[in-house]
Design brief:
Helices cover 69% and strands 5% of the residues. By secondary structure, the chain is mainly α. The protein has a 3-stranded antiparallel β-sheet with strand order 2-1-3, with no helix packed on it.
């Protein structure tokens, strides 16, 4: 039966009789791998308390917070698009409120991402982490500019013209940032489970 080995640094799973010489994700050595023992039938019967312990024990704050901007920015784009199509002020106001919540969530996402990077990946300066940090900072900057600008000028989109176009360009740039952040995050997560 094939064995499963887990990297203690990044969580990468390797299948084989022996652990790999080095982890393909975080490049740590073979001595940082541990054999994963499959739970027996008794472990399945642990009941509710075991399930809750497992849920809280496996909670990854960054994965939780990263979903906020990833969901809120596309929804913001949807509401602003509906405003442009139908002219209803409630769509624009809803889009703005979603934008505010997004900007408030980005610092938590960035902080938990930096924490996970330091603890799970040893703070290695790999290009993928640099890209994610730069994109998160750009997302926050674009969002702050958009929120302050719209706050100071509530009729920004109603008035139209180049300021409205530039504001929408900021929102589209934010959408690009969260798309790339999700892509790079997916590369890290799914690479852990590849052989």
């Amino acid at each position: 039966m094939e064995k499963t080995w887990r990297c203690n640094v990044c969580g990468y799973l390797h299948k084989g009789d022996e652990p790999p010489v080095s982890c393909p994700i975080c490049h740590t050595t073979a001595d940082r791998f541990e054999l994963v023992v499959e739970p027996g039938a008794a472990a399945v019967e642990e009941g509710r308390s075991g399930l809750l312990q497992e849920m809280f024990g496996s909670l990854v704050p960054h994965a939780l917070f990263a979903h906020f901007p990833s969901a809120l920015i596309p929804t913001t784009v949807l509401f602003l698009g509906l405003f442009l199509l139908f002219g209803s002020a409630s769509f624009e106001t809803s889009g703005f409120h979603l934008l505010v919540v997004t900007v408030l969530s980005v610092p938590l996402t960035l902080a938990t991402g930096l924490y996970d990077w330091k603890n799970s990946f040893g703070g290695q300066p790999a290009p993928i982490f640099r890209k994610k940090i730069i994109l998160a900072c750009l997302l926050l900057c674009f969002g702050l500019i958009a929120v302050v600008w719209r706050w100071q000028n509530p009729d920004l989109l109603v008035d139209g013209g180049w300021p409205a176009g530039l504001f929408l360009l900021l929102i589209v740039a934010m959408l690009g940032c969260v798309t790339l952040l999700g892509h790079y995050g997916g590369m890290l997560v799914f690479a852990k489970n590849k052989k």
